[in-house]
Amino acid sequence: MKTLSTLAAIAAFTISSITFASPVNINTATASEISESLNGIGMVKAQAIVDFRTTNGLFSSADQITMVNGIGDSTYEKIKADILLK
I want to staple 29 with a disulfide (CB 3.0 to 4.6 A). Which of 4, 33, 56, 73 is the partner? Predict the structure, then answer.
């Protein structure tokens, strides 16, 4: 019975350790907010998103994020559900 309790505790810890991305408005979010909200986007790419937005204006469609250096189609496919535009 102790083994079952241990396994249950490990499972609960593992599930609670999983982080889920939350949607983020890439037109208004800071680099920190972007990196925390989009899985696979670290601070360098998040800052590149902010820099791109500053230089080129707001994103008018989510797929424009692929114009940011370092973000290709495969990355976009992974994060597109978590991108908001307002």
Answer: 33
Across the chain, where does the E strand assignment appear?
A: 24-25, 83-84
**C-alpha to C-alpha distance for 30 and 60, rounded to whole angstroms:** 18
Question: How many secondary structure helices (H) and strands (E) does the chain include?
Answer: 4, 2
φ/ψ region of 69 (left if φ > 0, alpha if ψ in -120 to 50, else beta) reads beta
Please report, in tens digits, the pLDDT of each residue of the chain (86 residues total): 666 565 555 655 544 445 556 899 999 999 999 999 999 999 999 999 999 999 999 999 999 999 999 999 999 999 999 999 98
- Tell me the C-alpha distance between 28 and 53, whole Å: 9
* Integer Cα distance of 84 and 7 in angstroms: 38
Q: How far apart are CA 43 and CA 60, in angstroms?
A: 22
